[in-house]
C-alpha cells in the first residue's frame, strides 16, 4: 500500500513537469504586419511633441490620433548617456488590436558617446485604425 501511495504521489508531482515541457503556441499567430513610418521630432504634430517633451524623463507608451494618422510612441526615459537607438521588433495587428514591440539598444562605441543624459524615444505613424493598441 505504501508503495502505491509513493507511485501515485510521484505521478502527481511529475505531471506538471511533463505538461509544462510542451511546445508553447506562438502568441503572434494570426497577426499581420502593419506598414509604418518613423517620424522625426520635427514632423510630429505640436501637441504630441509637447506631450513627449513633458514626459521624456519617464518611460512613455502613448498614442495620438491626427486626422487619418495614428501615432505610436515608445520612450525609454532618461538614460545616463547618449548614443542609444531603438529597434522595432514588431508592428502588427490582428482583428482586435495593434501591437508594437521595441527594444532599446545601447551605445555601439562608448568612446564616442555624449556624457550628457539622453531621452530616447521612437514615434511611428500608421494609418488610422479603430483598435486597441498594445505597446510593449
How would you sum up this structure, described in words?
By secondary structure, the protein is α+β, with helices and mostly antiparallel strands. It has one domain. 21% of the residues lie in helices and 36% in strands. The chain has 2 helices and 8 strands; from the N terminus they run H-E-E-H-E-E-E-E-E-E. The strands form 2 sheets. The chain has a 4-stranded mixed β-sheet with strand order 1-5-6-8, with no helix packed on it. The chain has a 4-stranded antiparallel β-sheet with strand order 2-7-4-3, with helices on one face. A hairpin with a 3-residue loop joins strand 5 and strand 6 (97-105). The protein is globular. It starts with a helix and ends with a strand. Mean pLDDT is 85; it is low at 2-26. Residues 70-127 form the PrcB C-terminal domain. This is Protease complex subunit PrcB family protein. GO terms for molecular function: peptidase activity. One of its GO terms (biological process) is proteolysis.
